[in-house]
Amino acid sequence: GNSVTQMEGPVTLSEEAFLTINCTYTATGYPSLFWYVQYPGEGLQLLLKATKADDKGSNKGFEATYRKETTSFHLEKGSVQVSDSAVYFCALSDPGGSQGNLIFGKGTKLSVKP
Amino acid sequence: DAGVIQSPRHEVTEMGQEVTLRCKPISGHNSLFWYRQTMMRGLELLIYFNNNVPIDDSGMPEDRFSAKMPNASFSTLKIQPSEPRDSAVYFCASSFASGNQPQHFGDGTRLSIL
Lengths: 114, 114
Known about the structure:
The structure holds 2 protein chains of 2 kinds.
Chain A: E1 3-6, E2 11-14, E3 19-21, E4 23-26, E5 33-38, E6 44-50, E7 56-59, E8 62-65, E9 75-77, E10 86-93, E11 102-104, E12 108-113
Parallel strand pairs in A: 2-12
Antiparallel strand pairs in A: 1-4, 3-9, 5-6, 5-10, 7-8, 8-9, 10-11, 10-12
Chain B: E1 5-7, E2 10-13, E3 19-24, E4 31-38, E5 42-50, E6 53-56, E7 65-71, E8 74-79, E9 88-95, E10 104-105, E11 109-113
C-alpha cells in the first residue's frame, strides 16, 4: 500500500545549522507530495508542496525536491532559526483517490538551540 | 479568509459523559477530515467525508465514536460514553477533493477525560 517514512527524531540543531529531514514514500501512480509544520499548541500548516517529478517546493527558506527515481522528498533549510522549532510531517496524496485524502508520516520533531 | 474553525478549543469532562466536537470547514471545500493526535500514536485519521458523505470510517476506534456532516458547513464528532483513553487533541481539516490539493487544519480541540 501507499506509505510515507520519515527519519525519526528528535533532531536537535544549533541556530544557523543546515537542516535535512529525510522522507521517502511508496505509492502507485503519481502522488503529490507535501510538507506540513506543526508549532506547539497549533494545528498542522502546509509548508510546501510538489505535484510532479523534479518539482521543487519552497517556502520560508525551506526546500524539497520531488525525486521519483529515489521516491524521496527530503526537506532542507540552509540556516535554521530558533523559531523553526516544531514538528515536521511529510505527506502524500492518495494517488488512487479523488477526495483529497493524504497519507502522513509519523512526524519529526526539530529543536533549534540558540 | 476564515480558516477551519473548531470548537471548543479545550474540553475537560468526566468519564462516561458525552462529548461533542464541532468543525466548520473552509467555505467551498468539499472534503472534510477528522484526526486524533496523541504522543503514543501520533496523528491518526479517524474518518473523512466527501460532499457530506462518509467515505472511510475505518479509523474510528470503536462504536463509542460517531461523526456526522449534516451540511457542507458543519460537522460533529461525538464520543459517547467517553473514557480516559480518549484524551487527545482532535483536529478537523478540509480541502478540495483533488489529489494535488492540500488539507487545511483547524487549531484542534484538546480533550481531557478524567
